Amino acid sequence: MMPQTTPPRRICRDCDGFATATITTGLPSADGTRDTIRVNCPTCRGLGHTIPAALTRAGK
User: Fold this and answer.
1) What pLDDT does 48 receive?
2) Model pLDDT, residue 32
3) Which of 1, 17, 36, 52 is the most exposed place for a label (fewest CB within 10 A)?
4) What proportion of the chain, given as a percentage, has pLDDT over 90?
């Protein structure tokens, strides 16, 4: 049986590994807390890392 290898992961250059941010809308809700929304990095889609382009092209 061959050992499985995983492709190397690189930290996303756009979000620097912090893939999801929680942002307050600034508007208070009825109970006095602030409404928040979660936003994912569009480059890594919220993963925090990317696969090198050379590996994704080789698989096509």
Assistant:
1) 87
2) 87
3) 1
4) 7
Give the Å distances, CA to CA, from 42 to 4, 17, 47, 48. 29, 12, 10, 10
Which amino acid is present at 14? D
pLDDT at site 39: 93
d(CA 33, CA 15): 27
Q: Which two tokens stand for residue 11?
A: 């930290």
Closest to 41 measured CA to CA, from 4, 8, 7, 13:
13
Query: What 3-state DSSP class applies to 36?
Result: strand
Q: How far apart are CA 48 and CA 57, in angstroms?
A: 20
Residues contacting 2, CB < 8 A, separation 6+: none
Q: Which two tokens stand for residue 40?
A: 């994912």
CB 19 within 8 A of CB 46: yes
